Amino acid sequence: MHDTIVWISGATEGLGLGLARNVPYPGARVVNLSRRQHPDYETVRFDLAEPATWDAVGAHFHNELRNFRGARAIFIHNAYMGAVQGFVGEVDPQLYRQSVIANAAAPLILGDAFVRACKPGYESGLVMITSAAARVPWEGDAVYCAAKAAAEHWVRVVRRERKQRGKGPWVVAIRPGFVDTPAVHRSIQTDPEQWPLGPFVKRDLEAGKAFDIDTAARNIWGALPPDPDKSVLLFGEMVTYD
Protein backbone atom coordinates (compact mmCIF):
# COMPACT_ATOMS: atom_id res chain seq x y z
CA MET A 1 0.00 0.00 0.00
CA HIS A 2 1.20 3.51 -0.80
CA ASP A 3 1.89 5.77 2.16
CA THR A 4 0.51 8.80 0.28
CA ILE A 5 -2.21 9.13 -2.34
CA VAL A 6 -2.65 12.38 -4.24
CA TRP A 7 -5.50 13.13 -6.61
CA ILE A 8 -4.96 16.05 -9.01
CA SER A 9 -7.65 17.15 -11.42
CA GLY A 10 -6.29 18.25 -14.78
CA ALA A 11 -2.82 16.72 -14.40
CA THR A 12 -2.44 16.17 -18.14
CA GLU A 13 -0.92 19.62 -18.75
CA GLY A 14 -0.17 22.99 -17.22
CA LEU A 15 -0.09 23.54 -13.49
CA GLY A 16 -1.72 20.17 -12.86
CA LEU A 17 1.16 18.43 -14.60
CA GLY A 18 3.64 20.49 -12.60
CA LEU A 19 1.88 19.50 -9.39
CA ALA A 20 1.94 15.82 -10.35
CA ARG A 21 5.62 15.65 -11.17
CA ASN A 22 6.68 17.67 -8.11
CA VAL A 23 4.79 15.73 -5.44
CA PRO A 24 7.24 15.85 -2.51
CA TYR A 25 6.33 12.49 -0.95
CA PRO A 26 8.57 9.63 -2.15
CA GLY A 27 6.62 6.75 -3.62
CA ALA A 28 3.33 8.65 -3.61
CA ARG A 29 0.50 7.27 -5.71
CA VAL A 30 -0.58 10.08 -8.05
CA VAL A 31 -4.01 9.89 -9.68
CA ASN A 32 -4.94 12.17 -12.55
CA LEU A 33 -8.62 13.17 -12.78
CA SER A 34 -9.27 14.22 -16.35
CA ARG A 35 -11.06 13.68 -19.64
CA ARG A 36 -7.75 12.43 -21.05
CA GLN A 37 -5.67 9.45 -20.05
CA HIS A 38 -2.26 10.53 -18.76
CA PRO A 39 0.65 8.59 -20.28
CA ASP A 40 2.52 8.41 -16.98
CA TYR A 41 -0.09 8.58 -14.21
CA GLU A 42 -3.05 6.49 -13.21
CA THR A 43 -6.16 8.24 -14.51
CA VAL A 44 -9.82 8.38 -13.54
CA ARG A 45 -11.72 9.69 -16.54
CA PHE A 46 -14.37 12.36 -15.99
CA ASP A 47 -15.58 15.60 -17.56
CA LEU A 48 -16.09 18.80 -15.57
CA ALA A 49 -18.94 19.82 -17.85
CA GLU A 50 -20.76 16.45 -17.58
CA PRO A 51 -22.26 15.96 -14.09
CA ALA A 52 -23.08 12.33 -14.89
CA THR A 53 -19.33 11.59 -14.85
CA TRP A 54 -18.62 13.14 -11.46
CA ASP A 55 -19.81 10.11 -9.49
CA ALA A 56 -16.84 8.14 -10.83
CA VAL A 57 -14.52 10.52 -9.00
CA GLY A 58 -16.53 10.34 -5.78
CA ALA A 59 -16.58 6.56 -5.99
CA HIS A 60 -12.80 6.47 -6.43
CA PHE A 61 -12.30 8.66 -3.35
CA HIS A 62 -14.63 6.39 -1.35
CA ASN A 63 -13.18 3.09 -2.54
CA GLU A 64 -9.56 4.09 -2.00
CA LEU A 65 -10.05 5.74 1.40
CA ARG A 66 -12.55 3.45 3.15
CA ASN A 67 -9.74 1.11 4.24
CA PHE A 68 -6.76 3.43 3.75
CA ARG A 69 -3.90 2.80 6.18
CA GLY A 70 -1.33 5.22 4.81
CA ALA A 71 -0.09 8.56 6.16
CA ARG A 72 -1.88 11.10 3.95
CA ALA A 73 -4.48 11.62 1.27
CA ILE A 74 -4.65 14.90 -0.64
CA PHE A 75 -6.98 16.15 -3.37
CA ILE A 76 -5.96 19.18 -5.44
CA HIS A 77 -8.74 20.52 -7.62
CA ASN A 78 -6.90 22.31 -10.37
CA ALA A 79 -8.88 21.61 -13.55
CA TYR A 80 -11.16 24.15 -15.18
CA MET A 81 -12.96 24.53 -18.47
CA GLY A 82 -11.35 27.29 -20.49
CA ALA A 83 -11.91 28.79 -23.93
CA VAL A 84 -15.17 30.50 -22.94
CA GLN A 85 -13.92 34.08 -22.76
CA GLY A 86 -16.51 36.61 -23.84
CA PHE A 87 -19.03 39.11 -22.57
CA VAL A 88 -22.16 37.86 -20.85
CA GLY A 89 -25.05 37.77 -23.28
CA GLU A 90 -22.69 37.47 -26.26
CA VAL A 91 -20.99 34.08 -25.90
CA ASP A 92 -22.54 30.87 -27.16
CA PRO A 93 -25.27 30.00 -24.60
CA GLN A 94 -24.44 26.30 -24.57
CA LEU A 95 -20.76 26.99 -23.87
CA TYR A 96 -21.77 29.50 -21.21
CA ARG A 97 -23.97 26.90 -19.50
CA GLN A 98 -21.21 24.30 -19.65
CA SER A 99 -18.73 26.78 -18.21
CA VAL A 100 -20.98 27.53 -15.24
CA ILE A 101 -21.40 23.80 -14.57
CA ALA A 102 -17.72 22.98 -15.01
CA ASN A 103 -16.15 25.92 -13.21
CA ALA A 104 -18.68 26.83 -10.52
CA ALA A 105 -20.60 23.65 -9.68
CA ALA A 106 -18.06 20.87 -10.22
CA PRO A 107 -15.42 22.09 -7.71
CA LEU A 108 -17.97 22.24 -4.89
CA ILE A 109 -19.44 18.82 -5.69
CA LEU A 110 -16.04 17.15 -6.00
CA GLY A 111 -14.81 18.87 -2.85
CA ASP A 112 -17.83 17.58 -0.95
CA ALA A 113 -17.21 14.05 -2.25
CA PHE A 114 -13.62 14.14 -0.98
CA VAL A 115 -14.58 15.48 2.45
CA ARG A 116 -17.17 12.70 2.77
CA ALA A 117 -14.62 10.03 1.87
CA CYS A 118 -11.93 11.09 4.37
CA LYS A 119 -11.61 9.09 7.59
CA PRO A 120 -9.66 9.62 10.84
CA GLY A 121 -6.25 8.06 11.22
CA TYR A 122 -4.27 9.85 8.53
CA GLU A 123 -3.61 13.39 7.31
CA SER A 124 -6.12 14.49 4.71
CA GLY A 125 -6.15 17.74 2.78
CA LEU A 126 -8.13 19.50 0.09
CA VAL A 127 -6.70 22.27 -2.12
CA MET A 128 -8.78 24.45 -4.43
CA ILE A 129 -6.66 26.21 -7.04
CA THR A 130 -8.16 29.66 -7.50
CA SER A 131 -6.95 32.94 -8.98
CA ALA A 132 -6.66 36.69 -8.59
CA ALA A 133 -9.87 36.57 -10.63
CA ALA A 134 -11.63 35.85 -7.33
CA ARG A 135 -11.04 39.54 -6.48
CA VAL A 136 -10.52 41.32 -9.77
CA PRO A 137 -13.46 41.87 -12.18
CA TRP A 138 -11.94 40.96 -15.53
CA GLU A 139 -14.24 41.75 -18.44
CA GLY A 140 -14.88 38.70 -20.57
CA ASP A 141 -14.24 36.36 -17.64
CA ALA A 142 -17.46 36.69 -15.63
CA VAL A 143 -17.97 32.96 -15.07
CA TYR A 144 -14.31 32.33 -14.24
CA CYS A 145 -14.17 35.25 -11.79
CA ALA A 146 -17.42 34.25 -10.09
CA ALA A 147 -16.40 30.59 -9.91
CA LYS A 148 -13.06 31.34 -8.26
CA ALA A 149 -14.69 33.71 -5.77
CA ALA A 150 -17.26 31.03 -4.95
CA ALA A 151 -14.57 28.38 -4.45
CA GLU A 152 -12.62 30.62 -2.09
CA HIS A 153 -15.68 31.42 0.01
CA TRP A 154 -16.63 27.73 0.07
CA VAL A 155 -13.14 27.02 1.44
CA ARG A 156 -13.57 29.68 4.15
CA VAL A 157 -16.80 28.10 5.31
CA VAL A 158 -15.63 24.48 5.09
CA ARG A 159 -12.38 25.22 6.92
CA ARG A 160 -14.42 26.59 9.81
CA GLU A 161 -16.76 23.61 9.70
CA ARG A 162 -13.84 21.16 9.89
CA LYS A 163 -12.41 23.11 12.82
CA GLN A 164 -15.75 22.98 14.61
CA ARG A 165 -16.01 19.24 14.04
CA GLY A 166 -12.41 18.75 15.13
CA LYS A 167 -11.51 16.49 12.22
CA GLY A 168 -10.00 16.68 8.76
CA PRO A 169 -9.43 17.27 6.04
CA TRP A 170 -7.62 20.58 6.19
CA VAL A 171 -8.97 22.81 3.41
CA VAL A 172 -7.28 25.69 1.63
CA ALA A 173 -7.58 27.79 -1.54
CA ILE A 174 -4.41 28.75 -3.39
CA ARG A 175 -3.90 31.54 -5.89
CA PRO A 176 -0.75 30.31 -7.65
CA GLY A 177 0.07 33.60 -9.37
CA PHE A 178 0.57 34.06 -13.08
CA VAL A 179 1.58 30.67 -14.51
CA ASP A 180 2.75 29.99 -18.06
CA THR A 181 0.45 27.19 -19.25
CA PRO A 182 -0.89 25.93 -22.58
CA ALA A 183 -4.33 27.20 -21.54
CA VAL A 184 -2.96 30.73 -21.16
CA HIS A 185 -1.40 30.55 -24.61
CA ARG A 186 -4.70 29.39 -26.08
CA SER A 187 -6.56 32.17 -24.30
CA ILE A 188 -4.44 34.99 -25.71
CA GLN A 189 -5.68 34.06 -29.18
CA THR A 190 -9.15 35.32 -28.17
CA ASP A 191 -10.42 38.47 -29.87
CA PRO A 192 -9.66 41.43 -27.54
CA GLU A 193 -13.18 42.66 -28.15
CA GLN A 194 -14.37 39.56 -26.30
CA TRP A 195 -11.48 39.29 -23.81
CA PRO A 196 -9.76 42.66 -23.25
CA LEU A 197 -7.29 41.03 -20.84
CA GLY A 198 -5.60 39.10 -23.66
CA PRO A 199 -3.09 41.72 -24.91
CA PHE A 200 -1.93 42.42 -21.35
CA VAL A 201 -1.47 38.72 -20.63
CA LYS A 202 0.48 38.32 -23.88
CA ARG A 203 2.69 41.27 -22.96
CA ASP A 204 3.50 39.82 -19.56
CA LEU A 205 4.17 36.37 -20.98
CA GLU A 206 6.64 37.84 -23.44
CA ALA A 207 8.25 39.82 -20.61
CA GLY A 208 8.85 36.61 -18.66
CA LYS A 209 6.63 37.57 -15.75
CA ALA A 210 4.93 34.19 -15.43
CA PHE A 211 5.97 31.28 -13.23
CA ASP A 212 6.83 28.08 -15.09
CA ILE A 213 4.65 25.15 -14.04
CA ASP A 214 7.33 23.46 -11.94
CA THR A 215 8.19 26.59 -9.95
CA ALA A 216 4.51 27.27 -9.33
CA ALA A 217 4.00 23.66 -8.24
CA ARG A 218 6.93 23.71 -5.85
CA ASN A 219 5.62 26.95 -4.34
CA ILE A 220 2.31 25.24 -3.67
CA TRP A 221 3.71 22.02 -2.26
CA GLY A 222 6.08 24.00 -0.04
CA ALA A 223 3.10 25.75 1.57
CA LEU A 224 1.27 22.54 2.50
CA PRO A 225 -0.17 21.67 4.90
CA PRO A 226 -1.35 25.25 5.45
CA ASP A 227 -1.49 27.22 8.65
CA PRO A 228 -4.79 26.10 10.24
CA ASP A 229 -6.06 29.69 10.34
CA LYS A 230 -5.36 30.41 6.66
CA SER A 231 -8.11 29.98 4.10
CA VAL A 232 -6.37 31.47 1.04
CA LEU A 233 -2.66 31.37 0.16
CA LEU A 234 -1.27 33.84 -2.36
CA PHE A 235 1.71 33.62 -4.71
CA GLY A 236 2.97 36.19 -7.19
CA GLU A 237 1.75 39.74 -7.60
CA MET A 238 -1.90 40.81 -7.70
CA VAL A 239 -2.59 41.49 -11.38
CA THR A 240 -5.28 44.08 -12.11
CA TYR A 241 -4.56 45.39 -15.64
CA ASP A 242 -6.42 48.62 -14.87
Layout of SSEs?
Blueprint: E1 4-9, H1 14-21, E2 29-34, E3 42-45, H2 54-65, E4 72-77, H3 93-117, E5 123-129, H4 142-165, E6 170-175, H5 182-187, H6 198-206, H7 213-222, E7 232-234
Parallel strand pairs: 1-2, 1-4, 2-3, 4-5, 5-6, 6-7
What does this structure look like?
- This protein is an alpha/beta fold.
- It has a single domain (4-234), classed as NAD(P)-binding Rossmann-like Domain (Rossmann fold), CATH 3.40.50.
- The chain is 39% helix and 16% strand.
- A 7-stranded parallel β-sheet has the order 3-2-1-4-5-6-7, sandwiched between helices.
- Helix 1 (14-21) packs across helix 7 (213-222) and helix 3 packs parallel to helix 4.
- The longest helix is centred in the middle third of the chain and has 25 residues, at 93-117.
- The chain starts with a strand and ends in an 8-residue tail after the last strand.
- The model has no long low-confidence stretch (mean pLDDT 95).
Question: Can you summarize this structure?
Answer:
The protein has 242 residues and is of the alpha/beta class. 39% of the residues lie in helices and 16% in strands. It has helices at residues 14-21, 54-65, 93-117, 142-165, 182-187, 198-206, 213-222; strands at residues 4-9, 29-34, 42-45, 72-77, 123-129, 170-175, 232-234.
Which short descriptors sum up this protein?
seven-stranded parallel β-sheet, 7 strands, 16% strand, Rossmann fold, alpha/beta
